[in-house]
Amino acid sequence: MWTNNARPKSFFRKQFLVIVGINMLSLALASGLLFSNFVNDYTDNLINIARTKGLLLSSASTSALLFNDQQAATANLEFLQHYPATRYAQIFDTNFQLFAKYVREGQVVPPFDKALSFGGSFRNNNMYWYASIDMDEQTLGYILIVTDTESLQAQQERYALIIILVFIVSLLLAYILNWHMQKRLTTPISQLINLVSNVAQERQYNKRLTLNRNDEFGDLFRGVNLMLETIEQHKTQLQGDSARLENLVKLRTEQLQQHSDRLENVVQLRTEQLYNRANFDALTQLPNRHLLADRLSHGIVKARRESKMLVLMFLDLNRFKVINDSLGHAVGDQLLSHVAEKLSGVVRETDSVARWGGDEFVMLLEQITSHDSIVKIAEELVKSLDAPVLVGDHELYISASIGIAIYPQDGDDPVSLLKHADISMYKAKERGLGEYCFFHPDMLVQSVERLSLENQLRAAVEKQQFFLVYQPQICIISGKVVGVEALIRWQNGPVVISPLVFLPLAEEIGLMHQITQWALNEACQQNWCWQQAGLPKIRVAVNFPVSALLHAKCLEDIQKALKTSSLDAQYLEIEITEDSFMSSTKKAIDVLQQLQDLNIQIAIDDFGTGYSSLSYLRDLPVNALKIDGSFIQGLGQTRANDGIVQSIITLGKSLNLLVVGECVEEQAQLDILSSMQCDIIQGYFFSKPLKSFEMAEYLEKGIEANDITATKHP
Ligand SMILES: [Mg+2]
After folding, report:
1. What are the domain boundaries of the chain?
2. pLDDT reported for residue 706
3. Which residues surround ligand 1, an ion (CB under 5 A)?
4. How far is the CA of 262 from the centre of ligand 1 (A)?
5. pTM score, two decimals?
């Protein structure tokens, strides 16, 4: 808006022109009036002079007219020669006949115009004065005086010159004054405009106006300077605030960027973690069942397309639950990690090892071309777990059972293959530790039966559908009953199911601890009842499988059973098997030592069939060895068998342990054992396992059993 500098200048120029124009008009008007007054005065004066001269000549010519004296009249007119301006003068009689005249030299007298009016008048650069010559109200004649108007013209020119000069001078003064005043006005306004323009366009708030005046412009300039000073202060403050704000924004932007980067990293990390969590087992870092199912589906598609085999191996660790329950989950988890490493080391790069859950692993083998290569891998997997694993100060022994299903012969979809491999694994378990088994359709029927039995067993545990039978143990030397072994039976409706059938199943599905606990309570209670009934005080032996022995609550359960039944600890015997030491020797020894400290008897059952090293038997806290029934059955048949039995008895003697021969059914077996100095006999030769009331009767039949200390052979 301030770029067009012509606009304010144009305004002042117009204003100047208007003022000068008004001045010119006023001066012209005044000059005209003045000139007119001057001319009027002068013409009046000329007329007055002409009238005076006319009156004088009229008076002087009266007598000449009366007496018709033309000479006298002419002489009077000669008087006008002293007035050079007079051009001519005429006196007429009443008939307008020329009576006398005066004509200046060189002048031409025109004919008299009778229409001429009395008085002065101007015509054709001449002034006419015309009047009648009267005497006593009688007209004697007429007089006409004509003068030139050169003096009037000269006077007019002079007046015009003076007025023009005055006009020019006045106009010049008006122009100068106006110009000066306008400059006084436009200079500060121009400064103000320039300042405002600089401030508006270039933000130069440090500029100041320098006009030093005491009028309104001075006040305006001081006000503007003060306003600019205030604006500059605010600007400086704003610049400071702006710089601080800019730094703050910069800092915040950097912080936001860093935060954004961190957030991005966290999101990426979380995404990877979520993917790993969804697809990999957190403990072993192996693919989980979700990822395995995915790979299995793809593997089947690929195998179908290439017409190749695909092998699925379902691997379950044996006795892992025992370790987990006895040594805690931390030890169990470390063991699983070691197992995962071992299994991964066996399979090829093209194969997958996944953790199915718990102690179950699944191997997916692709690019398999022969049955032999499947067998080889299965054997290598079993063998890889042979060596003990050291976790902390525990030396742990583990074994696995493997079920194998093959695509397409055992199933053409993931669910079928997994199911059939799982069923095969249970079949492998039935065959013993460290076995593998290929799927066969017959297993499906067995699997259904097994599932049914499993459900019934769970119900039996809940309803306590078990009972105990007791088989007496007889001292060879004294012939006295020194103890009974409590044996569990399952009353499944009308059918009694053998422990050989349901105990392995109970072990697999985790019911062994509950069943053992029930048997323990029942045996202690029964023994106390017999004692209360006045029967001989004998000890009752309860079988403790390894899972029950190594259970975290084993000691607590036994103490509770003794306390509840009020049975003295010396009348309780715990039978364990050699594999109690297979999982964790240290843990087993700790538990046994505490039991022995309670004065509870410890016997190793089925001795001779396990793989325990005889070297540590010396330090075990046990009281008795029970020779495995298979050796007793073979007595007298081979020298090797008899040698083994003799060696066990000799070993027991050397370690100051009682030796028990179980499953004795014949006199010959009894004789051989007696000759070998076996201490105690148990078996059908003396008695089958008896129900509690039968056992009470057995004790009452006169066989005295008032001493539980069996007589040892010397
Ligand atoms: Mg037993």
Report:
1. 6-172, 289-440, 513-689
2. 42
3. 543, 575, 605
4. 65
5. 0.56
